[in-house]
Design brief:
The complex is a heterodimer. Chain A contains seven helices and 17 strands. By secondary structure, chain A is of the alpha+beta class. The radius of gyration of chain A is 20 Å and the shape is globular. Chain B is α+β, with helices and mostly antiparallel strands. The mean pLDDT of chain B is 95. The chains are: A alpha+beta, B alpha+beta. At the A-B interface, β4, β5 and α4 of A face β15 of B.
Chain lengths: 331, 357
């Protein structure tokens, strides 16, 4: 699965401009989906299976977009001012490199010489090596992503955009491995999650499912002196109980836990203070649906060097496959 | 006579209409004065007009060809203002803001209260009586009062709307008035209906409750369920020189630089296909345009594009200085070019623009 993950994180797809990822995913799911379409917003929706006895219409969602920057001004001397596209933390900016959609690369600098604290975003700029405004190959409104090479540390993988290409990889791998399902699965590779789960909102309306599961990363509490959280790398898939945008349906949480126990898959329960996923939009779409999330534990979320545990990723696939292989009885 | 490629112009008639609409008052869904003018202006040109449950005017002008693209164009009728919340003695009232208003703009401003437009003023302590340290304080709205005098006091009650009392004027290249946000868009949309391109089905939404959270547009988009949407609004321009002579890098938009096209704001990432189309149309027709600096703010597109199964959307605004204050300044040419750009883009909209393979 490492090659699959690598091909996905190496592809460019800031929120609203996910087309390259869409094309890649289309190739990757060739032959394993029964029907594929791209909707008005750009969500790639792949149906797998048809409804059989005991089955449900299920929406699965992993988002294709990654956080990035947008040019807001090119100054007289050719420096590019910017704002964020999605949740960018200023602390990760300085010294970072970015690439605009037209291929132009640049480095991030700041007005202040002080290196003691992170400068505010409006005090930073991107230097693309231009001498003045006229020669600057970037214009206002151009989109950029962070550039940082993928690293395989053996059991751990590091890259930009693991949020949520690793979720995309889990969904694709599960589609591949899932030979038989009583359910009608709508595998949504969603857009614009990082700016407010907008793609999932419209996809959920279109799919009109009975059950929704999002696949996304969640932060961990296993690094030195970090904010406490009962999720760690290497301890298995995190089954979301709540985050700041939703309460998972307790029936779904129980179903996920029982399935993991039955299959001998390690798992952890996730309670996230800040952040949410596509599942929040599924839950309240139309007349509502039961929703839950399988989270892939991830350190340094929204930095250019996000880290996941490879065994966790494999176990997420195992859990999702087990969940979808049999009829669901919530009792 | 065909109206096919006849672009709408902004002439005396449109400026007179803007004057009437700028001087008319309406907040939230309480936009009867605006709606009346809109209805009388568009009725002869529409195939269907109705007022929905929230107060939006939804008008349809059909295409003159089959299988046309169904395009929603939205402009909001409501303006920022106030609502009376409590009566005190002597014609004084406490108010809350409706929409985003900077209270530093308020002391000493003439206003109109209630359906009868009772004249009043937002009062504050005069400079003669102010202590030195008070001079440095900002005055919050809760410290200010609407003063309509003892006679006016009988005609105003809690729940009544309060509006800025500014009278519209055209001064050289400038348009000055209250509520140009978004009566400029309202007049533009009226003109689009009157000169609707034959190739598209025009779904015109004159919306309510934009200023308090894009609420009218949300249900309008659900009702129309269009193929795509264009929002015509007004956006702040803060293009003044900086005090220290350094380069102004946060201006949002600039006056006289043409229609402001949105790439990204708080609520919307504009559809890239629509953006490319607008840029192309503008260059081919030599219509000046600017890209609104991506960042905070939003338009009706924020609720339209995420309605139902998703509606590709883009916003185009006329820039204006001193937004959400008693008086905004916009430029005639920016307005004219905005209308020309939208009309031309619609008239030359390829049917398959949004098709995905």
């Amino acid at each position: 699965m490492k090659e699959l993950i690598r091909s996905l994180v190496d592809t460019t797809g800031p929120s609203g401009y996910e087309m390259q990822v869409t094309e890649l995913v289309k190739q990757l799911i060739k032959g394993i989906a029964d029907e594929v379409k791209v909707d008005a917003m750009g969500n790639l929706i792949a149906r797998k299976g048809t409804l059989k006895k005991g089955g449900k219409r299920i929406m699965l969602s992993a988002h294709m977009d990654e956080i990035g920057l947008i040019a807001t001004h090119v100054d007289d001397n050719g420096f590019v001012r910017f704002t964020s596209n999605g949740g960018v933390f200023p602390v990760y900016l300085l010294g970072g490199r970015v690439r605009f959609l037209n291929g132009v690369e640049g480095v991030i600098g700041s007005e202040s010489d002080s290196r003691d604290q992170a400068p505010a975003m409006n005090k930073c700029y991107i230097d693309v090596g231009a001498k003045d405004r006229e020669s600057c190959p970037v214009k206002v409104g151009d989109m950029a992503i962070f550039v940082r090479p993928y690293v395989d540390l053996g059991t751990r993988l590091v890259s930009k955009a693991l949020d949520d290409r690793v979720g995309v990889a889990v969904l694709i791998e599960t589609m591949k491995q899932l030979k038989d399902t009583p359910h009608e699965l709508y595998c949504v590779f969603s857009v614009q999650e990082e700016v407010g789960c907008r793609g999932a909102m419209t996809a959920a309306y279109a799919v009109d499912a009975e059950l929704g599961i999002a696949l996304d990363v969640t932060r961990t509490g296993d690094t030195p002196k970090c904010t406490k959280m009962e999720v760690a790398l290497g301890k298995g898939p995190a089954i979301k109980v709540r985050d700041s945008g939703m309460l998972s349906d307790p029936k779904v949480v129980r179903w996920m836990q029982e399935t993991a126990e039955k299959e001998g898959i390690p798992y952890q329960l996730e309670i996230l203070d800040a952040g949410s996923t596509d599942a929040r939009m599924m839950q309240v779409s139309r007349a509502g649906m039961s929703a839950g999330v399988i989270s892939i534990p991830c350190r340094y979320v929204h930095s250019p060097s996000e880290m996941v545990d490879y065994q966790d990723v494999l176990d997420c696939v195992k859990l999702l496959k087990a969940l979808l292989s049999n009829p669901i009885n919530f009792g | 006579m065909t109206t096919k490629n006849m672009a709408p112009l902004i002439e005396k008639e449109q400026i007179d209409l803007l004057e009437r609409l700028s001087n008319a008052c309406g907040i939230l869904s309480d936009v009867g004065e605006i709606r009346k003018i809109v209805l009388e202006s568009i009725k002869p040109y529409c195939d269907d007009v109705h007022i929905d449950a929230l107060g939006n005017v939804l008008a349809i002008r059909k295409a003159q060809q089959p299988d046309a693209l169904r395009v929603m164009v939205a402009a909001h009728m409501d303006e920022v203002g106030f609502m009376v919340v409590e009566k005190e003695e002597g014609g004084l009232f406490r108010m809350v803001a409706v929409g985003g208003i900077d209270s530093r703009y308020l002391p000493g401003k003439p206003v109109l209260a209630g359906k009868e437009h009772v004249p009043g003023v937002i009062g504050a302590k005069p400079i003669h009586l102010m202590k030195k340290d008070e001079m440095n304080n900002t005055m919050e709205l809760e410290d200010l009062r609407l003063d309509v005098g003892p006679d006016g006091g009988d005609k105003v009650k809690p729940g009544d709307p309060v509006y800025f009392a500014t009278k519209f004027q055209q001064v050289g290249p400038s348009l000055m008035g209250k509520a140009l946000d978004d009566r400029l868009g309202v007049v533009s949309l009226i003109s689009l209906i009157q000169h609707a391109p034959a190739n598209i089905e025009l779904l015109a939404a004159f919306t309510v409750q934009e200023e308090i959270g894009l609420r009218g547009a949300r249900v309008a988009a659900y009702a129309f369920n269009p193929d795509l949407a264009i929002v015509m609004d007004s956006t702040p321009s803060h293009d003044l020189p900086t005090w220290d002579g350094s380069e102004n890098i946060y201006y949002n938009t600039k006056l006289d630089a043409g229609p402001a096209i949105y790439v990204a704001d708080t609520g919307t990432l504009s559809d890239p296909r629509l953006l490319q189309r607008l840029f192309k149309i503008a260059s081919e027709n030599e219509i000046p345009y600017q890209i609104r600096q991506p960042g905070k703010g939003g338009t009706d597109a924020g609720s339209i594009h995420r309605q139902r199964a998703g509606i590709p959307s883009v916003s185009i605004s006329v820039p204006g200085r001193y937004a959400h204050s008693p008086v905004m300044i916009s430029r005639f040419n920016d307005w004219k070019n905005t209308l020309t750009l939208v009309h031309t883009a619609l008239a030359e909209m390829p049917k398959n623009l949004l098709q995905r393979n």
